[in-house]
């Protein structure tokens, strides 16, 4: 993958847990780094990805922020339930996220909003009928991936498959993260501010 030019940067949009949950998840990421030599998951704060990474012109940042703010203003805070671990073999271990109605509705709505207003297509794939369709959404919080070797994955998964983990919380903001060349950093947080009916 080519590096973005200095006139653009990599971004993604996510939901971040509250700090105590982030701390607990980061401790798990650090354990996986120390015991299974996988540090890639430490390059971002614990999160649930809603809009996958995309390149964006720095000259158009205000436009992106505007459309994200408009979207967030129409959404209510999102209840999240984390429970147990799951995997995308042979390289990814994650904390499972319950597929609540609110979460499963906000992700495709965001993808569609950013495609319509910003022209982003990173949340879509071309189907067998050659039409664009959203990527399937499996909400998760990654704790080990990419640089987790297959043998280490199997060893780690044998331990994490039945390890308990649970947390419940409400996410009050949509978070835009930017890659600084080394790690993902929080760039902005947009309040989910629609009033409850």
Automatic annotation (TrEMBL):
Q: Which SUPFAM superfamilies match?
A: LigT-like (SSF55144)
Q: Does the keyword Oxidoreductase apply?
A: no
Q: Which Pfam families match?
A: 2_5_RNA_ligase2
Signal peptide start-end = none
* InterPro entries assigned to the protein according to its UniProt record, in alphabetical order: 2H_phosphoesterase_YjcG-like (IPR050580), Cyclic_Pdiesterase (IPR009097)
Any GO MF annotation of the entry: ligase activity
Superkingdom per UniProt: Bacteria
Q: Which UniProt keywords apply?
A: Ligase
What is this protein called in UniProt?
2'-5' RNA ligase family protein
Q: What is the lineage of its organism?
A: Bacteria, Bacillati, Cyanobacteriota, Cyanophyceae, Leptolyngbyales
